[in-house]
């Protein structure tokens, strides 16, 4: 018999605390608190027998319990819980309501094909590389119609008018003078175009170039706007008569280039911030430039443009080498904090999410240690930011509560995220399609196997999408996508650039009998 089970001796009681035997006495002669009184021994035997019977009964009926199959279906289980008034959580231990997760899952499940815009002849669709960037104007443009700007050769900017039917499906029927089947070319030359963004307060399109060497890096122009006989305003494609070259590459550093720009909110006095291989630039509303962070010589600028280099605010080269990378270096993505345009988030080749307040005379950077290099950064509310990078790392951080107390597979200390996305797959691509819709609580991300997945911002899990998006396959990862709500639409749709095609996915009815 094991040491944990003492030998039972008739007429004696074994005290496990004192580890010795006591002779059982009658209750009349034993002390009132004695454990070896006959009454106490009988009571404990009954308690042990009842507990053992209850344990055996629970073990027998455990196999008779069948979990509902609805628990595997986010939508049906969430709706059923809502009908029964049962309070559920999106993920065990997270403490967030299920409603947001259910709405996101419903939108993803009902996703259908809403047509496509072709920027090349049909015989070349299967041979064209993916468009590196595009922009679809939305309801924030202040016009009655929409346009789509894109580049096929990473050099020339082309556009098409976007028209939809009653079910929000793309159509090729001309609406007045706007012909959605015609391709309009803007007389703008931007080699290796890396991003197309729109600054709504100033009505300016921002183009950046990733071409290394001596040349243009940031181009700004305002699309002309026309008013028809009904008083409706529309962008005019192919009518741009000029553009401004705000930024040139330095002759002393031919490897300096730009990754992308981020338009500033309307409350800011900036036009945009620009992420480069050399740091971060700010472009003011008067189109003057200044470094927020820099690592080398500033770019050469047009003689009419003033640039604050900020060199006297930086330590020397020896100090930087001694104290390490104290500020952002090569930056792939940046974003302003929602609700506060003075706070900037940035991420790049360093495995750090950089945070800075632009009101300080010299930008001081704090950082969150991410598990890999960062390709995308997006603020989703005043306190939380989504970070997606390489080595399959995508996380949400709360800037109020984070600690560097985790260790990644490489043995490096990283910060604890508020939420992880375990099914996110991007092993080694910086320039890969990715966008967020806070209205839908969704993250759309191109996977490195050529597919597109939707993730919930509430739970971090991948959501089952409609067959139209599930069947989308490409040999190489998609490079560009975006959520956008067209004028007159009530919900955002997802636009995905596959080859020379701009495909639209939405969940609006596709027939008269769909609800």
TrEMBL record:
<keyword id="KW-0853">WD repeat</keyword>
<keyword id="KW-0677">Repeat</keyword>
<protein>
    <recommendedName>
        <fullName>Myocyte-specific enhancer factor 2d</fullName>
    </recommendedName>
</protein>
<dbReference type="InterPro" id="IPR015943">
    <property type="entry name" value="WD40/YVTN_repeat-like_dom_sf"/>
</dbReference>
<dbReference type="InterPro" id="IPR036322">
    <property type="entry name" value="WD40_repeat_dom_sf"/>
</dbReference>
<feature type="region of interest" description="Disordered">
    <location>
        <begin position="300"/>
        <end position="320"/>
    </location>
</feature>
<dbReference type="InterPro" id="IPR052254">
    <property type="entry name" value="CUL4-DDB1_E3_ligase_receptor"/>
</dbReference>
<feature type="compositionally biased region" description="Basic residues">
    <location>
        <begin position="311"/>
        <end position="320"/>
    </location>
</feature>
<dbReference type="GO" id="GO:0080008">
    <property type="term" value="C:Cul4-RING E3 ubiquitin ligase complex"/>
</dbReference>
């Amino acid at each position: 018999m094991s040491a944990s089970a003492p030998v039972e001796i008739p007429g004696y009681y074994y005290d496990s605390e004192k580890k010795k035997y006591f002779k059982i006495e009658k209750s009349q002669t034993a002390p009132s608190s004695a454990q070896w009184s006959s009454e106490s021994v009988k009571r404990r035997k009954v308690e042990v027998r009842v507990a053992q019977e209850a344990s055996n009964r629970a073990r027998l009926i455990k196999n008779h319990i069948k979990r509902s199959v609805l628990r595997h279906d986010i939508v049906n289980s969430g709706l059923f819980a809502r009908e029964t008034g049962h309070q559920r959580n999106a993920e065990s231990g997270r403490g967030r309501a299920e409603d947001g997760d259910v709405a996101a899952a419903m939108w993803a499940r009902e996703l259908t094909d809403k047509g496509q815009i072709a920027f090349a002849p049909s015989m070349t669709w299967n041979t064209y590389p993916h468009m590196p960037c595009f922009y679809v104007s939305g309801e924030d443009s202040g016009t009655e119609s929409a346009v789509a700007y894109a580049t096929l050769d990473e050099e020339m900017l082309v556009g098409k008018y976007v028209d939809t039917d009653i079910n929000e499906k793309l159509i090729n029927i001309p609406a007045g003078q706007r012909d959605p089947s015609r391709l309009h070319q803007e007389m703008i030359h931007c080699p290796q175009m890396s991003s197309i963004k729109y600054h709504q307060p100033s009505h300016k399109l921002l183009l950046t170039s990733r071409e290394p060497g001596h040349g243009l890096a940031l181009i700004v122009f305002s699309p002309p706007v026309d008013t028809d006989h009904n008083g409706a305003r529309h962008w005019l494609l192919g009518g741009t008569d000029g553009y401004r070259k705000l930024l040139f590459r330095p002759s002393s550093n031919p490897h300096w280039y730009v990754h992308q720009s981020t338009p500033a909110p309307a409350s800011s006095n900036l036009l945009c911030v620009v992420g480069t291989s050399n740091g971060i630039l700010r472009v003011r509303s008067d189109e003057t430039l200044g470094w927020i962070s820099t690592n080398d010589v500033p770019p050469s600028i047009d003689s009419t443009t003033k640039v604050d280099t900020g060199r006297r605010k930086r330590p020397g080269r020896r100090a930087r080498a001694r104290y390490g990378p104290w500020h952002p270096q090569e930056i792939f993505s940046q974003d302003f904090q929602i609700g506060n345009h003075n706070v900037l988030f940035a991420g790049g080749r360093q495995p750090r999410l950089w945070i800075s307040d632009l009101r300080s005379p010299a930008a001081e950077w704090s950082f969150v240690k991410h598990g890999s290099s960062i390709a995308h950064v997006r603020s989703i509310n005043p306190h939380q930011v989504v970070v997606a990078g390489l080595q399959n790392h995508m996380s949400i951080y709360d800037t109020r509560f984070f600690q560097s107390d985790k260790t990644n597979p490489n043995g490096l200390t990283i910060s604890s995220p508020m939420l992880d996305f375990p099914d996110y797959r991007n092993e080694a691509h910086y320039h890969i399609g990715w966008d967020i819709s806070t209205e839908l609580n969704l993250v759309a991300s191109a996977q490195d196997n050529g597919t597109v997945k939707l993730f919930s911002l509430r739970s971090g899990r991948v959501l089952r999408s409609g067959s139209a998006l599930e069947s989308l396959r490409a040999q190489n990862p998609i490079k560009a996508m975006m959520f956008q709500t067209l004028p007159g639409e009530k919900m955002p749709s997802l636009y995905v650039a596959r080859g020379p095609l701009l495909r639209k996915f939405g969940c609006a009815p596709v027939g008269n009998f769909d609800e």
